[in-house]
Amino acid sequence: MSKVLVLHTLAPLSTTSDRDPGEFDLQAAAHGVAQALPDAVVAGIRGDIREILNLLEAHRPDVVFNACEAPLGRTDREAHAAALFEWLGIRFTGSGSETLAVCRRKDVTNAVLAAHGVPVPRTGVFPCIVKPADEDGSAGINAASICEDELAVGRAKALLPGPAIVQEFLPGREFAVAVWGARGPDHISIGETRFCNGLRLITYAAKWDLDSADFANSPLDYHTPLDRPLREAIENAARGAWRAVRARGYLRVDIRLDDAGNPFVLDVNPNPELGPGVGICRAVQEAGWTWERFVRLQVESA
Q1: What is the domain-level CATH number for residue 117?
Q2: What pLDDT, in 10s, does the model give residues 63-93?
Q3: Total of domains in the chain
Q4: Are residues 136 and 202 in the same domain?
Q5: Is 14 a domain residue?
Q6: Does 237 fall in a domain?
Q7: Overall pTM surpassing 0.90 (yes/no)
Q8: Does residue 143 sit in the same domain as residue 216?
Q9: What span, in angstroms and rounded, lies between the C-alpha atoms of 271 and 269?
Q10: Does 98 fall in a domain?
Q11: Which of 2, 97, 121, 293 would be 168's cystine partner, CB 3.0–4.6 Å?
């Protein structure tokens, strides 16, 4: 049995943005992983490199289960822990540093997807959506992110602290697609976001503010009916995204349909939510897997 260190980031003491510091606290996710690995050691870090090196030296794991998301509260450092493990030659779960770095920039991700023939929304058309190019977790996205003209685009961009990406706003159904496997995109679980009461997109509040109207108006349904051609088209797009960004272990792909019912990839997240009962955990369970089976697969194939 491999010695496993479940390494996770703690909530930062403060952030430089409007994001909730608790969003970056991976304690619950890490302990949920450890429940499937009775002999694993769980350790939380703020994100200083010396913390990580000291833990690796103290525990000398065969595998690190990487639950590090925003070291020191910095989302731009998401790939750094994986890069360190690669440099030290330590096996770890999830995608490598190059994949994590590519998917941190939505503009770069879209270019990579398009180059591999994966459909992405068009640019230069209205209505469109304006969102941060270098953030995740729906940060900076609200109802005003949907723009009908250039004036609205300018206003939306002015509210963002960094670079923006502007894409066609697709009117169709939206799906959260979990993909996982030992060496490739072998398994898929599809949930549909059900927009209610006029909500048209997944906002930051819908994702993180459990008491908000946006959260209540965007439930995720894994039992929605999908005809075979649509399911196959969604699965093909998700697997294409996996291969394009060279993912490993597990991945979440957000997919939305155009008015003709064709799927387009909105976002690729190689470091999705691992917490109990949500994110990847819920997705694999909805697909008939136990969480223990999923976690052990990740460790064995790291």
Answers
A1: 3.30.470.20
A2: 999 999 988 888 889 999 999 999 999 999 9
A3: 3
A4: no
A5: yes
A6: yes
A7: yes
A8: no
A9: 5
A10: no
A11: 121
Q: Determine the Cα–Cα distance for residues 297 and 295; give it in Å rounded to an integer.
A: 5
**13-59 pLDDT per residue, tens:** 766 567 777 778 889 999 999 999 989 999 999 989 999 999 999 99
Contact 265, 258 (CB under 8 A): no
The verdict on residue 97 lying in a domain is no
Q: Please indicate, yes or no, whether residues 113 and 257 belong to a single structural domain of this protein.
A: yes
What residues form DSSP beta bridges with 254?
176, 267
